[in-house]
From TrEMBL:
It comes from Streptomyces coryli. One of its GO terms (cellular component) is cytoplasm. Belongs to the PhzF family. This is PhzF family phenazine biosynthesis protein. The lineage of its organism: Bacteria, Bacillati, Actinomycetota, Actinomycetes, Kitasatosporales. PANTHER family: PHENAZINE BIOSYNTHESIS PROTEIN, PHENAZINE BIOSYNTHESIS-LIKE DOMAIN-CONTAINING PROTEIN. It comes from the Bacteria. GO terms for molecular function: isomerase activity.
Amino acid sequence: MRIRIVDAFTDRPFTGNPAGVVLLDGGAFPPDSWMQRVAAEVGASETCFAHPLDDGADWALRWFTPACEVDLCGHGTLATTHVIAPSAPVSYRTRGGILTAIPRADGAYTLDFPVARLTPAPVPAEAKEAIGAEPVRAYACRGGIRDLLLELSDEQAVRSVAPDLAAVARLAPYGLIVTAAAKDPAAGYDFVSRLFDPAQGIDEDPVTGSAHTALAPLWSARLGRDELTGLQASARSGLVGTKLRGERVELTGRAVTVIDGELLARP
């Protein structure tokens, strides 16, 4: 059984967000316990499992962190699409609904995802403790993701966050997104973000496509433009293009395969 490690939302190896990708034969998934063990062994923020379908969508797709299955994953969908390498739009049946990926002439892919709903929220004391800073605003995310989104004063504040991961874990079931406007939009991005979710086995996610389903409507409303570019300012870093279309958001990025091997442990 073949397994790839793909770096998503980047065109350079060892940057962006790595994902394991396993394309399965036949029309069913192996036992959940086996997929979870593979994801733990891979150790990336998500490992993706997909098998072909013959009705309703082209593929069934599931995503596992080292600790649990998740409802929505942008970089895993991008990585899976990169492995499939479609010449036309490809659709996935997922826990987050039907998702579509469209290959572009420039080698990037555009994902069609549901927009997250944002509700202004008070800042929990645990969140302030976790980041060691006073947020400007806070939002609860609903829909495909369930995170707490904190807007900070500026880009440097986002880059400087050194979170207390134990405090972040106490926010469960929420992950924690921090964001701010770009210091210099001429640098090639409009806003920055980081995401921490130790309760789901992800201390810091390198580049989170699903978080941009919340970041896109926030910053598009603030900046007055439907098309933006977000920089996730993790150590690995990566760029996510966003475009709002009503209740949907397009996420655009590139990917590169860094490992192509054989998974010897069969289900």
